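Need tokens for this chain, all 320 residues.
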Amino acid sequence: MSQISSRTPSVFFIEDVDRHDPQSVGSEIGKALPLAVMGVVVVVWGVAPPITKLISAPPLIGTFFRFGLSSPFLLLVLAARGRMLSRHVFLATALPGLSFGINLIFVFATLQEATVSVLSTVVAMQPALLLVLAGPLFREYPTRRQFVFTLLGVVGAVGVILGAGSELRSSWLGVGLSALSLVTFSLYFILTRLARLDNEVDPIEWMAGVNIWAFASTIPPVLLLADRSDWSQFGGRDWLWISIVAFVTGVFGHVLMTWLHGHLEAARSSLYILTMHIVAVGLAWLIHDEPVTWMQGAFGGVVLLCVALVVSTPGRREVQ
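Here are the structure tokens for all 320 residues:
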């Protein structure tokens, strides 16, 4: 513990202080701060699907501009702080960055083939996936109570989304693209989480590397598949919508989530993210006239109850 406390705290280090120095939790970050930050992430991530659906340009073009805006901005923020993107971090972010970029292409494409609810239904499966992988990957072992309430939370989230009834619309292509969105985002999430096991990385520097690689992932398909008519579809209010997605959801939300990877267990944070679907469905009702039914309200209550119960459940993990 003395070796750790003598250096700058790692953004990826979950303080293993329960057995060493209990007072350091309250003095360094406290128990409430990570939950408060997670609440902010839930809101800004919940904004993304309904806003993305407003963008009229094809998925490749939208994704290209999204990362084209966020990548230089993050580098400028780093420079303003007197830092540079190190070679080590740049190389370490290659795979998660490429996964993230491809994920956004699938998200844009899904929302042109399906309602927000379809995408949210499939992505809601992530906490269950993370619950299974948390032990072998992160050495974080959930309690039985946490396991049960996580699965109930997933069921509740699916109920929030499927409660739209006839408003749940998609082609088979939309379903397939949703599944690919789940796989690629889970890969990005897992790789970013794994980085904290061996490295100390500044959240902004990490996301700068991720965004550069994500931007790079959009260039080959844009050059090969996009034509002049695709580019001409981007304009007007698209600049406003893509700026919100790039800077609010992208830069702000993902930098906060990168910080949270060091202060919350993966299975817990993934469960808490389920509440973003309540935000997304609510905004889809306001923006896209996708109705909210009594069933969605009831299942939303289930999600919030399960999250509250997991928040109050002590974790059982082994972090080295």
